[in-house]
């Protein structure tokens, strides 16, 4: 079966609270795609979203000297909550338990595999790359609340320009090579290095645009940024 990996940002699953309208549309789209493509299966890794930000923010305020790994664990637990929700949403296609160690010894059963955070040091983007390597996918589709990667943060720099494509070398120059809990980049720096070394490509797109997501899945023209060697 052809395996597609989607790194589903917590920012669109639970931006402030669970976005029921988005998840309803997302489920309908993915279910329809799987019914059309009987030879396809999908891996969904899920980020922490608002629960991660809220709990990490509270911990920083109460215990400002808290170790970074403790902050990461708060974010990881939030991804487990969101992952359990996504697994329930797609329960008719899921046979595995929620995956929290992408390097573990398990087979992909069913049509959808749902994964969440593993351990401190990176985000669920890195889990997505590990799972892509494990199950032979050469592309990760990174779905968040941004349409494209920009040359800089457009919220801070009005001169920032959207990119249709960028090399891994140039992308890593932009995002750096280190991870801090809650770091907000189009794709996690640790995941970026893993994907580059594996010869993998990543598509960054706005996951809330369901029609655009289906275009990506079907190999049609789409709006987004391709990161590749």
Tag the structure with descriptive keywords.
globular; seven-stranded mixed β-sheet; Carbamate kinase; 9 strands; two-stranded antiparallel sheet; alpha/beta; 8 helices
What is this structure, in a nutshell?
This protein is of the alpha/beta class and 229 residues long.
**Strand percentage, roughly?**
15-25%
Q: Roughly how many Å apart are the termini?
A: 26 Å
| Main sheet characteristics | 7 strands, mixed
Number of individual domains = 1
CATH superfamily: Acetylglutamate kinase-like
Q: Structural class given helices, strands, pairing?
A: alpha/beta
What is the overall shape?
Answer: globular
Instruction: Figure out the total of helices.
Output: 8
CATH topology: Carbamate kinase
Averaged pLDDT: 95
H/E element string?
A: EHHEHHEHEEEEHHEHE
CATH class: Alpha Beta
Helical content stands at 40-55%
Number of strands: 9
Radius of gyration: 17 Å
Examine the secondary-structure arrangement and name the CATH architecture. 3-Layer(aba) Sandwich
Name the strands of the widest sheet in spatial order. 3-2-1-4-8-9-7
Describe this structure in words.
With 229 residues, this protein is an alpha/beta fold. The protein has a single domain (2-228), classed as Acetylglutamate kinase-like (Carbamate kinase, 3-Layer(aba) Sandwich). It has eight helices and nine strands. α2 (20-36) packs parallel to α8 (210-217), α5 (124-135) runs parallel beside α7 (189-197) and α6 (168-175) packs antiparallel against α7 (189-197). The chain is globular. The model has no long low-confidence stretch (mean pLDDT 95).
